[in-house]
Amino acid sequence: MKARTYPRRGLHGQVVHTIGLRILRGELKPGDPLPSEEELSADLAASRTVLREAVKVLAAKGLVEARPKTGTRVRTRSEWNLVDPDVLAWQLEAKPDGDFFGNVIELRRIIEPQAAKLAAERATEEEIAMLEETFREMEQALADPEAYLAPDLRFHELILEACHNELLAQTASTMRSVFRTLFLAARTAETIGRATHLHGAIVEAIRARDAARAENAMAELIDNTAAELRRAR
Q1: pLDDT at residue 1 above 50?
Q2: Max Cα-Cα span within the chain
Q3: Shortest CA distance to 198 belongs to which of 227, 163, 161, 233?
Q4: Domain topology for 10-79
Q5: Are 198 and 224 in contact (CB under 8 A)?
Q6: Is 38 in contact with 47 (CB distance < 8 Å)?
């Protein structure tokens, strides 16, 4: 399951990215009108057709809305789709404050320890084998933080899927975007070793069908990520 970001190649994608990032950076604030098509066209070297299509994409993400007579304006933050992969990526690029990452950690603490507990109780042997294989891929990528990211993300998706709760399973794609944003901010070559050890403890607990130990191991991993983040910030 992959949460895909909007393609940045080509003029259309570049326009979506540029305007979205301006909103996330606060250069365009909630309630502000978007610059006129003439201004944007001159600024971004884009046709009106490209601009209108870009605005549709941003509107679908909850960032802007078009109203008769008042034009297109930036919506309030509470109306933004904050877990949209692009919005999360722009948030990270805009250098979010501690509140954003605090919210991400809090979300993980609410969902993941219980998910690990359920996975220990419900995962099939095949799912546990997949989790172990993904963990081995993480171990093989210890020297390469960029290569480490993909199996790390998959590891957490597998746990959500192994709960055998269709609502939790459907959150895996959304959570992937959350995890990716957090891991890019927190993981470094120096911190991967400790994180990998903690992932291993989760695998061992799930393999042993020890639900309480799996829950605690996941909580410890999240606490470790929070500490990594504080040091990185």
Answers
A1: no
A2: 64
A3: 227
A4: Arc Repressor Mutant, subunit A (1.10.10)
A5: yes
A6: no
